[in-house]
Structures are given as structure tokens and as C-alpha cells.
Amino acid sequence: AAPTYEVSWVAGAAAIQLADTQADGPPEERPGSAPMGSKGRVPCYRLFQAGDGKWFFLACGTPRFFERLLVEIGRADLQDDPRLPSPPWGLMDLDAVAFLAPLLEEAFRTRSRREWLDALARADIPAQPVWTREEFLASPIAEANRLVTTIEHPDLGPVRMIGVPL
Fold this sequence. Notes:
With 166 residues, the chain is of the alpha+beta class. It has helices spanning 9-16, 18-22, 63-72, 94-108, 113-122, 133-137, 140-144, and strands at 45-49, 55-59, 127-130, 148-153, 157-162. It starts with 8 loop residues before the first helix and ends with a strand.
């Protein structure tokens, strides 16, 4: 019988990005392939920066999520606004993006990422943090997948690094 191997997807992804997790300084910026760069084209399905400077991804991919989002940011008055036709996917129109994106950006600057993620979770609105390398490597996900290991280097002593994902 052939041997069986188990590989965690998150461990495999971490191993592929090994250079990024070990590099000194901030990761280099990579432009997004979306028409509006890394922020995306749908104003309620994209990256946002919270008031503490930390980023999160908002994924309002249904009208129900969009309605809940408007309530959560205190703008339920926009639910039937003719400038926002067929939410959320109908909002790719550049006029709708120009109108809604700044409102959402301003709203999300009023609280920390943790506060927004907690509020969005309570409202059953999909959103997740965008972690730095350090946050990811210290996360319960990294721990549960045993991503970080320490090896004994003959000259440097103990060295923390991404382990083999197999």
C-alpha cells in the first residue's frame, strides 16, 4: 500500500510564503489585479482599514448582508436609495462605487478592527481580519496547525521558523 500523507492547506500556504514570513521589514507591496487595485470593484466586498490602522476584509455578497451592513454603520436610510441599485453586485457601477465607498471607509475609521469584527459578527455579516506575518504566526490557527517550529542552529542557537507542512 502506498504511504498516506496529510498536509494542511494553511500549512502548505504558509510554507509557500516562507520568504515573506522570514523577511525583515514590511512585505513589498504588490498591486492587485482588480480594476480598482487591492480594494476591489464592489464597495461592500473588499478590504477596509479600521480606525486603529488595521485591515479587514468585508464580504457582503448578498442583499441581506448588505442590508445588515447599512444598519450596522447607522445608514439604514440608504436601503432603498436609487443611487445604490441591486446591491451588492449591482454596485459595481462607478457612480455607486464613488458614492458608497467613501461612506463605508469613513464609517470603518470610527472603531478599531476588533470592535468592527465583533460588531459585524454579532450582525452575522461576513468579515475577517487581514493579519500581519507576526499576527498570523502568533494566531491560534498557526498553533493548531503546528506551523512554527524551533530548530537548534550550531552558530545562532534556537531559530524559530515555519516547519515542514507534511
